[in-house]
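Field: COMPLEX_INPUT
Field: COMPONENT_COUNT = two
Field: RESIDUE_TOTAL = 348
Field: MODE = joint
Values follow.
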Amino acid sequence: MNDSAKSQWIVDALDRHEASLVRYANWILGDIESAREVVQETFLRLCKEQQSRVGAYLAQWLFTVCRNLAFDTRKKETRMTPLGDAEIGVDSRLEQRETAGEIFRMLNGLPKNQREVVYLKFQCDLSYKEISEITKLSMGNVGFLMHTALKTIRKQILSAPRRTQ
Amino acid sequence: MNFNPDDPKWTAYVLGEMEESDRAALELELESSAEAREFVEELRFAVSIMKEGLAAETVLGLTPEQQTMVRASAGSRSESRNPFKQRLSMPATPTVWAAGLVAASLLVAVIVAPSFLRSRQASQSATLKTQPDITVTAPVLENPQENARQQPHPSGGAVTSAREASAPLQAFDSAAKDEKEIR
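Field: COMPLEX_OUTPUT
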């Protein structure tokens, strides 16, 4: 693999996954600056990898590394400033937006593992297989969590149709 | 067929996560169940709401400085980050081998020369120390009987070191050899 091809591969990966990764890291950390640092580190690590090793699993690799780095960062930050509830959550500023507010409230009402698979599916546009590899859950488990989450959301939407439609 | 809304296959179907063969079987089931069709429509609606809601989230990305750093890192030679690997992959041409051999020889010379000189100096001083013994044994060549009388230790004192011990023994051996030749 020559250098220019590898360089192009990384630039393409940056263009394609940067925004999703920053959103995902921000979703885990609740802090955009830390999220950006985590994503930058993720891409710097990608630069050290061989394309032949990662190529076929690029999205899974990026999201897995980003997820691990984000959880490590959160663990360190939690140790420094103990939080009452350090669970994954959406940015509270986003909750204030009227259009998305209901959806984020619904998402935040879901258990943590359901929230993560829903987020990876709808925000990051990943497949069950990719989510399974990132979260280390079985594909069957991912399907079950997704279905349970969607059933809950469906129920909430149907119970308050005017607010969401 | 009983409709089971707890089966994850409905969501998998809506999200396009189903195998082709399973999908065909499920579509047959949908045709026969109004309840299932309604449920699938509601799931589709929930999915569209979720996508719409999450799409409203502000688009975030790296700062321009961070992007520049990643792009610069992508442009640099990844292999050169590991100098050890780089050295291993260097072709071993005859010139490289010769240069290596010369360098190794010089290194050995630098390390060994001082200790060699020290040991040589020491042996010279030992030779000087045992010089009287040699002068004692030298006449023996002319007079073997006198030599035999002066044994076992030509210096007449106790042997205190290996060097001291070996020098008289060598002298003894050569004297005995010479004695045989004379006879």
